[in-house]
């Protein structure tokens, strides 16, 4: 008796069987992106209104720190119970954080709300990618990742303007309160897709010690963020201890071999961590550099981020339309090479104090490479993961990026704090040097992502499974 033929793969991610997962996932990611971008624009007003400049940095650091815990718990929970309850719980926490921040009477409560947002977005982001892994066929995932990239573009372009209008015409509180209802709407769109999800395994890898290391990593991220702009005296000791704890946490939270760029999945996670850390560091300081060194207005300085949003989406759109037979390892390598080459040129332009428009152009070209490589790391992580460990490895992908970004921002913060007051140009050169150096690691890591090196016999290089990596 012949087996039944496989069901045909829908030609569009908006086909009836895929529409809920595609549109619902994009909706949630767009809300996370909008809040990420809007908070940056609204924070000066928030800090002034709540007399909270002393906790300004922690308002950002609390979100990153809590998201690390959310990512770890989210990966375990998805494998154990399926992504459905994780998406719902994470979205509920994110919405609760929006309400707490929007109604906060003081900066301490506002920071608490930001922490809840980070915990919720960490849980939901991991779960959304597990939903995609379970509900979207492999051949259509690149197109879904293109849609998710587009979900970042609109907030990147409209977020600062919308935030400015809300702050000026209503109140900064509506930057948070106005987003909460849309979380519910996105969940309703995603709900049909959640019905078809399922657990992976019992996830025995999550032990109390794992949660303890996740919390330790979160505390370290918060300490590094507080160190921020100035490190002197005892702060050197505290910052150094935080970095050591962060590295120790990474050894226990990420697949073995990630820090040493082992072949296969470990190096895919390494690519994502290096890329994320590099562009997050660059974007933290490029707008300020354009303002201080080139006299750009806030809106003009923000053009570097707007250009990056558009080119990132373009790169992601291009990778989403490549043939199904395309070598995705090569796509990722091309992306990181483009990114690193443009970042090196950008660094040289900053050193010689070149024109601001060249900075915007080169960074836009750099993020075109990110658009090619970034979604490809997610696709390859799914391909290299057994079904029972998609949650775990997707979580590791996000955690690696968060921890890498924390370390890179801390290093850039030391360089910036040491020179900004007396040698402003040197301070910006130092921050770009960190971004370029970390980004270059993505090329080395990308060269080791194939489980079997090109030209080697399979017998010479055993495959690395998700459990081994």
TrEMBL record:
Transmembrane feature ranges: 21-43, 55-78, 85-103, 109-132, 144-166, 172-190, 211-228, 234-254, 298-318, 330-351, 357-375, 396-420, 426-447
PROSITE patterns: MFS (PS50850)
Membrane topology, record value: Multi-pass membrane protein
Superkingdom of the organism of origin: Bacteria
Subcellular compartments: Cell membrane
Chief subcellular location: membrane
Transmembrane helix listed as a keyword: yes
Any GO MF annotation of the entry: transmembrane transporter activity
One GO location term (cellular component): plasma membrane
SUPFAM superfamilies: MFS general substrate transporter (SSF103473)
PANTHER family: MAJOR FACILITATOR SUPERFAMILY, MULTIDRUG-EFFLUX TRANSPORTER RV1634-RELATED
Protein name: MFS transporter
Native source species: Ornithinimicrobium tianjinense
């Amino acid at each position: 008796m012949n087996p039944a033929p496989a069901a045909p793969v829908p030609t569009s991610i908006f086909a009836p069987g895929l529409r809920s997962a595609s549109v619902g996932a994009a909706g949630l990611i767009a809300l996370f992106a909008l809040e990420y971008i809007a908070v940056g624009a609204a924070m000066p007003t928030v800090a002034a209104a709540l007399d909270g400049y002393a906790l300004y940095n922690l308002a950002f650091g609390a979100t990153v720190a809590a998201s690390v815990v959310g990512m770890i718990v989210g990966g375990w929970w998805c494998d154990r119970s399926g992504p459905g309850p994780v998406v719902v719980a994470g979205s509920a926490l994110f919405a609760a954080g929006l309400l707490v921040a929007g109604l906060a009477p003081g900066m301490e409560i506002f920071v608490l709300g930001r922490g809840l947002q980070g915990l919720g977005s960490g849980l939901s982001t991991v779960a959304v990618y597990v939903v995609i892994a379970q509900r979207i066929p492999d051949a259509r995932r690149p197109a879904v990742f293109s849609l998710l990239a587009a979900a970042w573009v609109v907030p990147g372009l409209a977020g600062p303007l919308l935030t400015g209008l809300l702050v000026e015409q209503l109140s900064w509180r509506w930057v948070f309160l106005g987003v909460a209802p849309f979380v519910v709407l996105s969940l309703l769109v995603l709900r049909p897709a959640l019905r078809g999800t399922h657990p992976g395994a019992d996830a025995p890898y999550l032990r109390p010690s794992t949660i303890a290391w996740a919390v330790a990593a979160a505390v370290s991220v918060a300490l590094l963020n507080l160190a921020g702009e100035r490190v002197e005296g005892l702060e050197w000791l505290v910052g150094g201890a935080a970095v050591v704890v962060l590295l120790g946490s990474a050894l226990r939270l990420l697949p073995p071999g990630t820090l040493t760029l082992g072949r296969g999945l470990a190096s895919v996670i390494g690519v994502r961590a290096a890329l994320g850390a590099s562009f997050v560091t660059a974007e933290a300081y490029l707008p300020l550099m354009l303002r201080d060194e080139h006299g750009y207005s806030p809106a003009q300085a923000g053009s570097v981020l707007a250009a990056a949003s558009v080119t990132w989406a373009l790169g992601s759109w291009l990778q989403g339309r490549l043939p199904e037979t395309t070598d995705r390892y090569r796509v990722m390598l091309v992306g990181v090479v483009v990114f690193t080459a443009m970042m090196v040129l950008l660094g040289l332009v900053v050193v010689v104090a070149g024109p601001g428009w060249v900075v915007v152009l080169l960074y836009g070209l750099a993020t075109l490479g990110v658009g090619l490589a970034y979604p490809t790391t997610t696709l390859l992580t799914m391909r290299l993961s057994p079904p029972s460990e998609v949650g775990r490895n997707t979580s590791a992908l996000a955690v690696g990026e968060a921890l890498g970004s924390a370390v890179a921002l801390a290093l850039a913060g030391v360089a910036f704090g040491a020179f900004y007051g007396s040698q402003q140009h040197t301070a910006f050169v130092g921050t770009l040097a960190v971004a370029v150096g970390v980004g270059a690691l993505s090329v080395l890591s990308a060269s080791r992502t194939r489980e079997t090196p090109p030209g080697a016999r399979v017998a010479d290089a055993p495959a690395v499974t998700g459990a081994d990596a």
